[in-house]
Amino acid sequence: MYKILIVDDEAKIRELIKKYLVFEGKEPYEAENGMRAVELCRGGDFDLIIMDAMMPELDGFSAVKKIRETSAVPVIMLSARGEEYDRIHGFELGVDDYVVKPFSPKELMMRIDAVLSRVRPQLPAETAAPPHEIFEAGGLKVDFTARLVYVDGEKKDLSPREYDLLFYMIKNRNIALSREKILTDVWGYDFYGDDRTLDTHIKLLRKSLGKSKGLIVTLRGTGYRFEA
Predict the structure, then answer these.
(1) Distances in Å between the alpha carbon of 224 and those of 26, 35, 68, 202?
(2) Half-sphere exposure of 106 (CA within 13 A, CB side)
(3) Would you say 98 and 79 are in contact if contact means Cβ atoms under 8 Å apart?
(4) What distance in Å separates the CA atoms of residue 37 and residue 30, rounded to the nearest whole number?
(5) Comparing C-alpha atoms, which of 64, 79, 80 is closest to residue 159?
(6) Could you give all domains of the chain from N- to C-terminal order, each with its CATH number?
(7) What's the mean pLDDT when you consider all of the chain?
(8) Could you tell me the pTM of the whole model?
């Protein structure tokens, strides 16, 4: 059973999320602020954290930064604000997804399942090491098997979502990909938010790729294409 930590200073929101988690067969835990969340993470092993951005004592962004010092547990950030700066700040800290309040509990459950299925995939029946699948173009080298990315020989540390997005675009290279298709295929569910989530991740991915960022081409009014 997945252990989910709900961090929010509003008891009603914690109770609402908790009710849906129990219904979905997950084990919920609660924290009323970021400081308590950090304490619980030091002593507990959670599969995912739902973290409110704005809280007393220690805000969600600061709490995630502190948690990331010792844990790579996936985090879905909740916020009443949807500004690009907040999204970028969260994603740079390693947040896996971003949900703007007010939100649909059903959509939140779908996002939780999508993140869990991505970060904790089912183990294959056979444990024999597969051959490494390598892609190279324009100074970019990607080892899909080892989940490694290099630009001009320099190793790049990408966020989990940046890895997923880059790998998806490479495997669908030279194809015009609409924003809707990328969101559905990479995020793993029918995305109900706006395109800013994808555009923010593309911006961060290009920043990570440095000299190779030109491989990702913007198609005005459509989406993106990886050219190689």
Answers:
(1) 36, 40, 31, 9
(2) 3
(3) yes
(4) 8
(5) 64
(6) 3-119 (3.40.50.2300), 134-226 (1.10.10.10)
(7) 87
(8) 0.66
